[in-house]
Amino acid sequence: MCSRPEPPEPLRRVAVVGGTHGNEMSGVCLARYWLRAPGELQRPSFSAVPVLANPAATAACRRYVDCDLNRAFTSAFLTARAHPDDPYEVTRARELNQLLGPKASGQAFDFVLDLHNTTASMGTCLVAESSHDVFAMHLCHHLQLQSPELPCRVFLYQLPGEESYSVHSVAKSGLGLELGPQPQGVLRADLLARMRALVAAALDFIQLFNQGTAFPAFEMEAYRKVSSVDFPRTETGDLAGTVHPQLQTQGQLASR
Amino acid sequence: MCSRPEPPEPLRRVAVVGGTHGNEMSGVCLARYWLRAPGELQRPSFSAVPVLANPAATAACRRYVDCDLNRAFTSAFLTARAHPDDPYEVTRARELNQLLGPKASGQAFDFVLDLHNTTASMGTCLVAESSHDVFAMHLCHHLQLQSPELPCRVFLYQLPGEESYSVHSVAKSGLGLELGPQPQGVLRADLLARMRALVAAALDFIQLFNQGTAFPAFEMEAYRKVSSVDFPRTETGDLAGTVHPQLQTQGQLASR
């Protein structure tokens, strides 16, 4: 991997997005906090903008109102003519595309950090579009070096030939932070503190990059989706099985 | 406490209710299972009826659609003239009152067991209306004796002078089972197995009672609500504090 991440220009337009899913509370609470007190997002060379991505879902404490906002940033949704019957999240994706994009344009934000939680015991997961986002890969490596004692895995979400669809795909570069386990609608202080520290470290990395710091080449392990495995289900679609009690939460415990 | 619980007659009409809150998955999944395979709810002297209390909230995997069903069983809601604009849960409360009640009538079910989860680390909590429900108190004592190694606390929810409002208040006697911690919308196998065992033990107790078994007098510890303590909040109502990370989940760990 190259020793200095692209793009060559300093990053000035940076956003930190919470509440893309309205019941993932680390990002919801941090975005609300930074909207009142944005000083924590300032660095000498830039000031990151806090964004509450899905206010309606956040108010309802639901993942989304009509459809998943984090799947709505496709060209089909973003370029279609607006209609009063459009799903709320499609309308909101267009608004965010105006604010942070337009996607794939020179006017798009330089970097978007998108904050998520999961009920899965996966610790910290860094979700990038693909390894072609070299800046995001260097940021992932930097974050892993900050807390080597914690599991911090890199997941590359884009499948071959698939169009990007996430909030952070609107920007020139971006990364999702996925922290778990945390129940939906519940705020755990440990994950809140971890998310806050990760965001601070990411902004510090951008500051280092803007100062002209050189970052050495590296190799890193990353995960891709191989397949989806659903729970066993009945003919009517109800659950017919659960995670075995001896395995539940063990992913987290084993790796810590 | 009297050595033989009231009422003096055998209990024939018994219901086990899940999904009163649509995202508390132990009861949702058990009710769905028993609706397909009710044999597990049969005892020699009676067959308990499985009920999915809030199908719309269960389908949406939400606590409720319009208002909390488990607060809707008041005489004001149950006796008001039906109106097309009534909240879904008020309409549903009237339907359940027809099925399991009418509340405070001789036709009401003998016993209703209502299955809940909480995200709080409280282990097993048995929620009764008041200590005046002597049958429920004897059942609580029986359940505590079944698994003395597990925390199994009794909570009396009714405040002095307050009208009962829960699903199980429709029956002549009833009890809520509240198991945690479990994230909303998530099914943990350990809590599912615990809930299933508690229901089986409760039905076994009713069978023993119906056979004429005498139950010795006892004393028991029970909890009442003293006051509500909200999280600290900002002027706009947002959270301004969380449970301390060193305290989170410790309630459960300390008592196990």
Automatic annotation (TrEMBL), chains A, B:
Keywords: Cytoplasm, Hydrolase, Metal-binding, Zinc. One of its GO terms (cellular component) is cytosol. Zn(2+) binds at H21, E24, H116. Binds 1 zinc ion per subunit. NCBIfam families: PRK02259.1. Belongs to the AspA/AstE family. Aspartoacylase subfamily. It comes from Myotis myotis. One of its GO terms (molecular function) is metal ion binding. The active site is at E178 (proton donor/acceptor). The keyword Ion transport does not apply. InterPro entries: AspA/AstE_fam, Aspartoacylase, AstE_AspA_cat. PANTHER family: ASPARTOACYLASE (PTHR15162), N-ACYL-AROMATIC-L-AMINO ACID AMIDOHYDROLASE (CARBOXYLATE-FORMING) (PTHR15162:SF5). Its cofactor is Zn(2+). Residues 245-256 have a biased composition (Polar residues). This is Aminoacylase 3. Residues 11-206 form the Succinylglutamate desuccinylase/Aspartoacylase catalytic domain. It is found in: Cytoplasm. Pfam families: AstE_AspA_cat. Residues 237-256 are annotated as: Disordered. Its main location: cytoplasm. SUPFAM superfamilies: Zn-dependent exopeptidases (SSF53187).
